[in-house]
Design goal:
Elements (H helix, E strand, L loop, with lengths): L1 H36 L2 E8 L21 E5 L5 H13 L5 E7 L3 H12 L5 E17 L7 E15 L18 H8 L22 H24 L3
Parallel strand pairs: 2-3
Antiparallel strand pairs: 1-4, 3-5, 4-5
Length: about 240
């Protein structure tokens, strides 16, 4: 038993030693990287330039649509400006379909643009997610150092909207004046779509009738006062 304990203690000591060495190596590496980055400053971000052929909508446009309006949405984009521009293009007949694209901080506004536009036109909608490469440039502040370029992938949202029906066989197409397939499936199973009230048959809350209780307490208080007055008048106190 003593031999087993000594063996276990030795293995634990060896494991602790390896763990300490690993942490020391990690901290040394992190410290050196931090010290190194202190001599750099953040420069510009260069986002990958996309073309219409790079969009994930191959064979998704109606056959008679030769071109579509492509609206780029960023975090600082003014919603009313881009929506009015899209409305004007549709009203003039310049385009029958358009695509909203936004990445990073522009994803939420991209969704808002599509939702606002659907209030004015019966549009078919098809949504796709993708990733866009962004290069982060770090400029050195000391001689002898080279520029650092870090590449990362950011999520990008693309929403295709068309006044005409999209080709058959495309899954996930949302028809005009309808919710998404997810909510339709949820309703068919007996669920309720998001945003609807939870309980429609809830009983109305009845107010408590506190008047009789107050009157009863007042009567009891009056009886006590009358009894006390009677005792005082009889001279028993």
């Amino acid at each position: 038993m003593l031999f087993s304990f000594n063996k276990w203690h030795a293995s634990c000591s060896a494991w602790q030693k390896e763990e300490k060495e690993a942490w020391f190596h990690f901290l040394t590496l992190a410290s050196s990287q931090f010290t190194k980055m202190m001599h750099y400053r953040k420069a510009e971000n260069v986002e990958q330039e996309l073309s219409k052929s790079d969009l994930p909508f191959e064979n998704c446009l109606p056959k008679d649509h030769k071109d579509f309006l492509w609206m780029h949405v960023k975090g600082g984009t003014k919603l009313s400006n881009v929506v009015e521009y899209a409305k004007s293009a549709l009203d003039k007949g310049e385009y029958r379909s358009l695509v909203w694209s936004g990445s990073g901080g522009g994803v939420i506004k991209t969704i808002s643009c599509a939702e606002v536009l659907k209030r004015s036109y019966p549009l078919y909608q098809f949504t796709r997610m993708a990733y866009t490469s962004v290069e982060e440039h770090w400029k050195p502040q000391m001689d002898g150092l080279e520029e650092i370029i870090a590449t990362r992938q950011i999520p990008t949202l693309h929403i295709l909207m068309s006044l005409d029906a999209l080709p058959e066989g495309i899954e996930g197409v949302q028809a005009p004046n309808t919710t998404s397939d997810f909510w339709q499936h949820d309703e068919a199973k007996g669920g309720r779509p998001k945003g609807t009230p939870g309980r429609t048959n809830k009983r109305p809350r009845t107010e408590r009738n506190t008047k009789p209780q107050q009157q009863s307490r007042q009567q009891e208080q009056q009886q006590k006062e009358n009894q006390l007055k009677t005792v005082i008048d009889s001279g028993h106190v």
